[in-house]
Write a structure and sequence with these properties.
The complex is a heterodimer. Chain A is built from 18 helices and 20 strands. Chain A is α/β, with parallel strands linked by helices. Chain B is 73% helix and 1% strand. The chains are: A alpha/beta, B mainly alpha. At the A-B interface, α10, α11, α12, β16 and α13 of A face α1, α9, α10 and α14 of B.
Chain lengths: 507, 345
């Protein structure tokens, strides 16, 4: 169906001379580190950006949509990483945006639109999303599904999924991959972008790797191993994704929490975090893990007791938590905001929580500040970055480093890492794991939530499973595999529940 | 993180001299990631100045420049405060009410040296308190800055009408003349502007300023980084109120009387000066260096219109047109810069 989407770029460095094609009937993966140019390429195809050189062809003809809307109508549907949904409109209104069914009076036919959205969900096998609800009230995973359903409703000949799985749970991911396969069987071409190598290897036929805005090569997936792909992405061999264990938990309790609840989702959590320990947390979306992190950092109100290094504490604001020696790096599900200040420079971001110690008579000295942030710049290998660059212009991986770095500089002993590796490429991931080992070996305690089960099985010393606002199980490192962890996450002690939920996708 | 790694004595870049490093750093920061809009505002201001000078010979003399600066002074002071509020992604409409009320108090209570000092301090304290009230409502209670300051604007305007129902009153001649006098060969008004720039450059390097920029950049992000949003916003709006009261003192020097509606027509220019000066209305970016050029531009625009013998209402229309133009140009400049930045990556 779709043939010969090729393009070459010269002027813009984000992409220089990339050629790429997807044919009908295949799922073609696009791999690359953050900032390699994957999303830029997709945006050129969909008409968000315009190519400075080179051209896109669709069905043998030159394809130049003015915007993503036109692109969708002409048969190239893109599910963008940023999910361009309008939060204040309902699910149905979002899906039929700009092409709402009208009544005779030229007003939007709301009921007809909702029932059509309902039909669409049924056709796609999606359950549990009410078309009449506002997108604002939906979980991130449900929003992702709505965005996918919207694009599929145009019945595109070429379907592009840009990081569409990063917000989804295991059952939803397998639904999406199944659906993508069905589309391919019916002759459509699918471009699949993901940082999860396992998904790519499981679902795709061919793979193209981008690095620094250039194409490294295209392979049949059967012909290359995972290590080769990672090496192609990084431009070097990655010796180890998971750093060798150098830290061991000591007897010293850094953080002790008992009976912690919030008015939202947390229902009495008890936990202890030791010096030198990495404590993993897992749970399905919305089980209270976010509340736990926010409560421990004084962002939301909580009941129950928190003590840091044996001293009982009450946190009314993040300032209290910072003073008590807690640091947080929070990557929200939409990967925007909370934790970085885009229009401030790297230097200003790094020093912000420590300003109390940096000023002389209320004035900040640039030199003092530069020296202060020096260690963080060195330790996090953000040395190549310019401290005066705006954080908003950095790639995702580097932004994450800045977010972590500022709390390392406050001398925090307890570090709360919330989904720090979401949407991060393998190279940066390996660096984050190495950093976590370093910090733990230095005596810090790390509470580490991740939506990636593979990481949780490999990185932490202990794993706590959060379900319905409580910690329902704990495993030691090596005590459980991915399957048993996923089973525990759905609140079951055996495999059966998972199997029965396999076919169904709920919000 | 171990203590050793927080060693502050290590120098990240030893071989260049500190002075050179900070100079190249500052310039680099400006051209690389910084904004060119303040620079553009100065180009615009100078263009207006030379246009006016071409139409009106003698403009570039010390005295004439002093008069232009004196005319600009109230607006510049007002916009200094407004700009700081806008940096937090807020807006302060109440500066109009504070200014009106302050001029009426000055015009009715300034009689001699002693009353001037006492009531001058009262006016400044009132401005600061009025601003702090806005700050508490916006920061502590999370109300919309637009609504809060729209309401307090009306309240202070009402009190101003009680103090002085119609334009009138007077201030001592010696007080009013200060703005037209000179010191060390330079008109006082120019000195005042220079002092304000110095104050701004100091302020920009304080912790509070950094926290203000942080809030404007991303409020939640700033909170997570330990910035006290409540406290910082109270300080921000208090500064704006103080500036509005100070602007009123300069205003009565120019008019030698009070006016219960004087502030209303200065609200738009105060926002316009900030925007023309390149400060982002969504917060986090900009500063007074551009704002002062914006204020000068607006004053000179009025002067140019005056030279053409056009009726004075044209000034008001032109202010609005210039504001729209500035926003358009600002957007275009930002696009240009984004493109440049993308090319570099």
């Amino acid at each position: 169906m779709a043939r010969g989407i090729s393009k070459a770029f010269a002027g813009v460095k984000a992409l220089s001379g990339v050629s790429f094609d997807v044919v009908g009937g295949e799922i073609h993966a696009l791999l690359g580190e953050n900032g390699a140019g994957k999303s830029t390429l997709i945006k050129v195809i969909a008409g968000v950006y315009h190519a400075d050189a080179g051209e896109v062809q669709f069905r043998g003809e030159r394809f130049t949509p003015r915007d993503p809307d036109e692109s969708s109508r002409k048969g190239v549907g893109v599910v963008f990483q940023e999910l361009p949904l309008v939060p204040d409109l309902t699910v149905a209104e979002n899906i039929f945006f700009n092409r709402q069914p009208l009544t005779r009076l030229r007003t939007v036919a709301g009921r007809r639109m909702r029932s059509r959205a309902q039909e669409l969900f049924e056709d796609l096998g999606l359950r549990g999303i009410d078309p009449g609800r506002q997108v604002r009230d939906l979980s991130m995973a449900a929003r992702q599904l709505v965005a996918i359903a919207k694009v599929l409703s145009y019945d595109p000949a070429v379907l592009v999924l840009d990081e569409a799985t990063s917000a989804l749970g295991p059952a939803e991911v397998s639904w999406l991959l199944d659906h993508a396969r069905q589309c391919a069987i019916s002759g459509k071409g699918i471009i699949f972008i993901s940082h999860r190598l396992a998904e790519v290897q499981e679902a795709c036929d061919r793979v193209t790797v981008l690095r620094n805005g250039q194409s490294v090569g295209t392979w049949q997936l059967g012909e290359v191993g995972g290590e080769d792909l990672v090496a192609a992405m990084l431009g070097r061999r990655l010796t180890q994704l998971y750093s060798p264990r150098r830290s061991e938990p000591t007897e010293k309790v850094l953080l002790s929490v008992s009976n912690l609840s919030t008015s939202q989702r947390l229902r009495g959590v008890n936990l202890e975090l030791h010096s030198g320990e990495i404590l993993g947390m897992c749970g399905l979306e919305g089980q209270g893990q976010l509340d736990l992190f926010l409560a421990l950092f004084g962002v939301v109100k909580s009941h129950g007791s928190i003590s840091v290094e044996g001293v009982p504490r009450q946190f009314h604001s993040p300032r209290d938590a910072i003073r008590a020696g807690i640091g947080i790096a929070l990557v929200p599900e939409d990967r925007k905001g909370e934790g970085m200040l885009p229009s401030l420079s790297v230097r200003e971001n790094l020093s912000l929580p420590s300003l109390e110690h940096l000023h002389r008579f209320g004035i900040l000295g640039r030199d003092v500040e530069q020296q202060f942030i020096g260690p963080a710049v060195k330790d996090l290998r953000i040395g190549r970055l310019d401290p005066e660059q705006f954080v908003g212009t950095l790639s995702g991986g580097n932004q994450q480093k800045v977010v972590v770095g500022k709390f390392l500089l406050t001398g925090a002993k307890v570090l709360l890492f919330y989904d720090l590796t979401r949407g991060v490429d393998v190279g940066t991931k390996a660096e984050i794991f190495r950093m976590m080992e370093d910090l733990a070996a230095d005596g810090a305690g790390i509470l580490y939530y991740s939506s990636d089960v593979t990481e949780l099985v490999n990185v932490p010393h202990r794993i706590a499973v959060v379900f319905e606002g409580q910690i329902i199980r704990e495993f030691r490192h090596g005590e459980c595999g991915e399957e048993s962890l996923v089973a525990a996450m759905v609140g079951s002690t055996d495999q059966e529940a998972l199997v029965s939920e396999g076919g169904e996708v709920d919000s | 993180m171990s203590e050793a790694k927080l060693d502050v004595s290590r120098s990240p870049d030893g071989h260049r001299s500190p002075a050179l490093r900070s100079a190249t750093g500052a310039f680099g920061a400006w051209t690389r990631s910084g904004d060119i809009r303040p620079l553009a505002a100065w180009v615009l201001a100078l263009a207006f100045l030379f246009t006016y000078a071409a139409l009106q010979p003698g403009t570039l003399s010390n005295t004439q420049l002093g008069i232009i600066c004196a005319d600009t002074l109230p607006l510049a002071v007002l916009a200094l405060g407004q700009g700081i509020v806008i940096l937090t992604a807020g807006i302060d409409l109440s500066v109009g009410g504070v200014l009106s009320l302050s001029t009426t108090i000055a015009a009715t209570h300034f009689t001699n040296g002693a009353t001037m000092v006492v009531w001058g301090l009262v006016i400044l304290a009132f401005g600061m308190a009025a601003g702090a009230v806005n700050g508490v409502l916006v920061g502590r209670f999370g109300l919309q800055p637009f609504i809060v300051t729209l309401a307090t604007w009306s309240i202070y305007d009402g009190i101003a009408l009680y103090v002085l129902p119609v334009e009138g009153g007077q201030v001592p001649v010696g007080f009013a003349n200060w703005i037209n006098n000179s010191a060390s060969g330079l008109p006082n008004a120019i000195w005042a502007l220079i002092v304000m720039v110095v104050i701004w450059l100091w302020f920009k390097r304080t912790r509070t300023a950094r926290q203000i920029y942080a809030i404007g950049s991303d409020r939640e992000g700033a909170r997570i980084a330990g910035v006290s949003i409540d406290r910082t916003l109270v300080v921000t709006y208090a500064i704006s109120g103080f500036c509005a009261a100070a602007a009123a003192l300069f205003y009565v020097m120019l008019t030698a009387s009070g006016d219960p509606t004087s502030g209303d027509s200065l609200i738009l220019p105060s926002v316009a000066a900030v925007v023309i000066g390149g400060t982002n209305l969504f917060g986090g970016k900009g500063g007074f260096v551009g704002t002062i050029a914006g204020a000068l531009t607006l004053t000179l625009l009025g002067d140019v219109i005056f030279v053409f013998n056009l009726p004075s209402y044209w000034t008001v229309v032109a202010d609005g047109l210039l504001l729209i133009l500035a926003v358009l140009m600002g957007g275009a400049l930002q696009q240009l810069q984004l493109r440049r930045m993308m090319r570099r990556q």
